């Protein structure tokens, strides 16, 4: 667990249960980090774990984050030209599109032994980045990404620094899904990298948690879900070609009530990997999706059927 100097420990705990394997991950809650998660990017990987899906619908996302010494690295040889590529910290997709089309994220890079935080934006399929300044290891940082009053720009703020960047649409709200820590750029993580992120309770409305990957025994799996507002909810399963092979019955999730849902797939699935994509519809009829492109396994959960 990342050290958090100057922060007071509360008496509570948080827990994440990995369903199907009976693994219980626990950790202390800290004041100022009441929605904190410890993310790890393993050596040789791009994506972080735990892999969870959280939908986002709103005009701002508040964030707290802490890097430890593992966020610094030095590339040598042919990889040295990628030293200043921007890794992704946290943010959201936007404009009801895939994040590679439109999104706003904080990023970071290791620049001459120091951690430099970046504003990283995708707009209409092209990406843009600009520095927000340097932070120290084991330092608690506060940031936010907000929509401007005219909805044409993102406003990035971190530790008192403010930056405004053009947005790819003018929708009244950003509607999409949360984007978690990711290494690269072109390179994979040179060693295990640990980051603590506090989403500040700004993500809504659905949180879903299942193992990644899950061994699908007899077409059955479990999902733990909760909603910060009332929604209707279903999941769809796609094969490796992006074809939908199964869809659950839609059901209502009440606000603030965590449920463990058992799913039984009655279709015959051949051995291989399948993607599980949660969908939710808010009470005002806006459909939120965990992944616009189900073929992209990093944006959904993966089920494995034994061959």
Molecular structure report:
The chain is an all-beta fold and 307 residues long. It has strands at 9-18, 23-30, 36-41, 53-58, 60-67, 87-93, 103-111, 114-123, 126-135, 141-147, 153-158, 161-166, 174-179, 193-198, 206-209, 214-215, 220-227, 231-238, 244-247, 251-253, 259-264, 272-282, 287-289, 301-305. The strands form four sheets. A nine-stranded antiparallel beta sheet has the order 9-8-7-6-13-4-15-17-21, with no helix packed on it. It is globular. The two termini are 37 Å apart.
Brief summary:
This protein has 307 residues and is mainly β.
CATH architecture name of the largest domain: Sandwich
Please report the distance between the alpha carbons of the first and last residues: 37 Å
Rg over alpha carbons: 19 Å
Number of extended strands: 24
Outline type: globular
Number of helices: 0
Lateral strand order in the biggest sheet: 9-8-7-6-13-4-15-17-21
Q: In total, how many domains does the architecture comprise?
A: 2
Structural class: mainly beta
What is the share of helical residues?
under 10%
Proportion of β residues?
A: over 45%
Instruction: Specify the CATH class of the largest domain.
Output: Mainly Beta
Summarize the helix and strand pattern as letters: EEEEEEEEEEEEEEEEEEEEEEEE
CATH fold description of the largest domain: Jelly Rolls
Largest sheet: 9 strands, antiparallel
């Amino acid at each position: 667990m990342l050290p958090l100097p100057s922060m007071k420990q509360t008496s509570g705990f948080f827990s994440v249960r990995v369903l199907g394997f009976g693994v219980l991950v626990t950790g202390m809650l800290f004041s100022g980090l009441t929605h904190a998660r410890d993310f790890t990017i393993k050596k040789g990987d791009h994506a972080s774990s735990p892999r969870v899906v959280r939908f986002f619908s709103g005009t701002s996302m508040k964030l707290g984050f802490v890097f430890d010494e593992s966020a610094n690295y030095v590339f040598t040889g042919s990889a040295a030209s990628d030293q200043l590529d921007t890794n992704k910290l946290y943010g959201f997709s936007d404009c009801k599109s895939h994040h590679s089309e439109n999104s706003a994220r904080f990023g970071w890079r290791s620049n001459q032994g120091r951690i430099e935080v970046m504003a990283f934006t995708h707009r209409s399929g092209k990406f843009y980045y600009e520095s927000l300044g340097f932070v120290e290891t084991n330092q608690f940082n506060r940031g936010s990404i907000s929509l401007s009053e005219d909805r044409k720009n993102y406003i990035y703020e971190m530790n008192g620094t403010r930056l405004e960047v053009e947005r790819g649409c003018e929708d009244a709200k950003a509607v999409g899904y949360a984007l978690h820590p990711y290494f690269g750029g072109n390179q994979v993580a040179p060693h295990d990298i640990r980051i603590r992120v506090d989403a500040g309770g700004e993500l809504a409305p659905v949180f879903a948690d299942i193992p990644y990957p899950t061994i699908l025994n007899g077409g059955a799996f479990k999902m733990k879900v909760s909603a910060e507002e009332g929604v209707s909810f279903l999941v769809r399963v796609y094969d490796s070609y992006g074809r939908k092979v199964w869809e659950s019955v839609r059901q209502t999730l009440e606000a603030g009530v965590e449920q463990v849902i058992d799913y039984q797939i009655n279709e015959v699935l051949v051995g291989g990997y399948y993607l599980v994509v949660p969908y939710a519809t808010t009470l005002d009829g806006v459909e939120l999706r965990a992944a616009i492109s189900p073929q992209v396994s990093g944006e959904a959960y993966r089920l494995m059927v034994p061959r």
